[in-house]
Amino acid sequence: MKIALPTNDKKTLAPRIGMAKGFLVIDTDTNETTYIQNEALKEYIKEHKKLHGDCGEHGLGVGQVLPKKLKELGVEIFVAKFFGEGMLGNLDLCQIKTYVSKKHKIKDVIEEVLNGD
Known about the structure:
The protein is built from four helices and five strands; from the N terminus they run E-E-E-H-H-E-H-E-H. Helix content is 34%, strand content 21%. The longest helix is centred in the middle third of the chain and has 11 residues. It is globular and about 30 Å long. It is α/β, with parallel strands linked by helices. Strand 4, helix 3 and strand 5 form a beta-alpha-beta unit. The protein has a single domain, classed as Dinitrogenase iron-molybdenum cofactor biosynthesis domain (Nucleotidyltransferase, domain 5, 2-Layer Sandwich).
């Protein structure tokens, strides 16, 4: 099974999907990982040079682009601390299940998902 998560350091779950530096895709069958850079955030930083606050209200468009990319990679579950309505709707359209976790370390999050907690 392939699970995707937003992350800033490839070790912990990022607090916000749209503001994550990237997304880690983990194949739980092979332990293979793939990292996808958050291109929307990269473009935003390039244009605005400096971020103020968490910028959640800016709507960088991650919810429109990311679900399709995850579907192409065969992701079945996307885990985050919080989902906005747009992201939820687009993940649903791509038939990717969502899972909310309050855990911090990615290894703990994966264990939580696999155990069905």
